[in-house]
Design brief:
Elements: H1 3-17, H2 20-29, H3 37-57, H4 60-84
Helix pairs in contact: 1-4, 2-4, 3-4
Length: 86
């Protein structure tokens, strides 16, 4: 792996791990009042598109990071939609 790949992998790890605390907090407390449904919807779509891009480019750091981030973002988005319907 070259230096550029290391940087990309580290960046992907950082941006993916950034969502873990929010996902844990949202799941445990079910308090999603500070989460914007339009923002998270657009963000989740963007992550899904990054995943497609990574798949098309066969770029594993992009693929792995976006699979994990998409799962976390979808969890938060689903919790928000359920919370909003109450």
């Amino acid at each position: 792996m070259d230096f550029t790949s290391y940087i990309g992998s580290f960046a992907a790890t950082c941006t993916t791990l950034a969502f873990v605390p929010q996902a844990i907090h949202s799941y445990r407390t079910r308090d999603l009042t500070g989460i914007s449904l339009p923002m998270y919807s657009i963000f989740t779509l963007g992550v899904a598109l990054w995943l497609v891009y990574g798949l098309l480019k066969q770029d594993w750091p992009i693929i792995v990071a976006n699979v994990v981030t998409l799962a976390l973002a979808l969890m938060i988005l689903v919790l928000k939609v359920i919370d909003r319907s109450k």
